[in-house]
Automatic annotation (TrEMBL):
Keywords for this protein: Amino-acid transport, ATP-binding, Nucleotide-binding, Transport
Highest taxon of the lineage: Bacteria
Domain named ABC transporter: residues: 26-250
Protein's name in the database: ABC transporter ATP-binding protein
Length: 267
């Protein structure tokens, strides 16, 4: 896939020397994660291909966020995590992030008392941050550059959070429930921004909105009780109402006019 923004990046050479695109960018094997002595991720194994969106799914509390935090070394973990061909499961979080992993956490976590511009400047890690990409994806933020982030709507804060990750040339983005609690219109805007972002970087996306998953996901990994219970092409799950009911506990929402399935999946 051509990518004008990345082509202009000074890091193009390092990207070209990476393994072939058929290699997964992230390989997780037998990952276990623990919080305060409690096992919250159990023997999780899956791959994230080097392009497109892989959705990490499952009902509330099954361990989606904990899986991402285990990959990043933010919680105690064991198992194998291979990123861009190298093991990272013994590295501290900052070393993993430096290798090119962007994280957009579940609760957005913008600096409320700083302006939009200040939030974005603090996130810039590269010598040549992708400001043009961010401004093209989030024109609303350009308008609001002097506004304190704490006074933005939830959707606008989500865009700041995504923009912070996209400013740097990452080799993988981990995005946790970016549409949670947003109105349908803003969900659509965030979805389109993610679709554009996915043309520049592979994404592991935690998401519960089936319409967003339909629009974005190529592959799906489904967790239940901290374990992987299904992996496959997104269509294999999304076109099977029985599987959706079994794994996610919601109806398929096949009718695009039906927004009732946009609600968070019940526990
Ligand atoms: N800080 C914590 N201390 C103790 N237990 C925790 C903590 N964070 C999460 N857990 C537990 O770990 C399990 C997995 O939680 P996790 O947040 O990873 O699930 P999730 O799939 O992301 O859920 P959600 O859909 O609500 O975001 C749950 O049983 C949860 O109660
Ligand atoms: Mg979560």
């Amino acid at each position: 896939m051509t990518d004008p923004i990345r082509t202009e990046s000074p890091r193009t050479e390092s990207i070209r020397t990476e393994p072939a695109r058929t290699e997964p960018i992230l390989r997780v094997r037998n990952l276990y994660g623990r919080i305060a002595g409690q096992q919250v991720v159990e023997d999780v194994s899956f791959d994230v291909p080097g392009t497109g969106v892989t959705a990490l799914l499952g009902r509330n509390g099954v361990g989606k966020t904990s899986t991402i935090r285990s990959i990043l070394g933010l919680i105690e973990r064991t198992g194998e995590v291979t990123f861009a061909g190298s093991r990272v499961d013994r590295l501290p979080t900052h070393r993993i992030v430096q290798r090119g992993v962007g994280y957009v956490p579940e609760d957005r976590e913008v600096f409320a008392k700083l302006t939009v511009t200040e939030n974005l400047r603090l996130a810039e890690r590269d010598a040549h941050p992708n400001r043009a990409l961010v401004e093209a994806l989030f024109p609303d933020l350009v308008q609001r550059r002097a506004q304190l982030a704490g006074t933005l709507s939830g959707g606008q804060q989500q865009m700041v959070s995504l923009a912070r990750a996209l400013l740097n040339t990452n080799r993988l983005l981990l995005v946790d429930e970016p549409t949670k609690g947003l109105s349908p219109k803003i969900v659509g805007e965030v979805t389109e921004a993610l679709l554009a972002a996915a043309a520049t970087v592979p994404i592991l996306l935690v998401e519960q909105n089936l319409q967003v998953i339909r629009r974005l996901a190529d592959r799906v990994v489904v967790l239940s009780g901290g374990r992987v219970v299904f992996t496959g092409d997104a269509a294999d799950l999304l076109d099977d109402p029985e599987l959706i009911q079994r794994y996610l506990g919601v109806h398929s929402g096949a009718d695009p006019a039906d927004t009732t399935t946009d609600a968070a999946v019940p526990a």
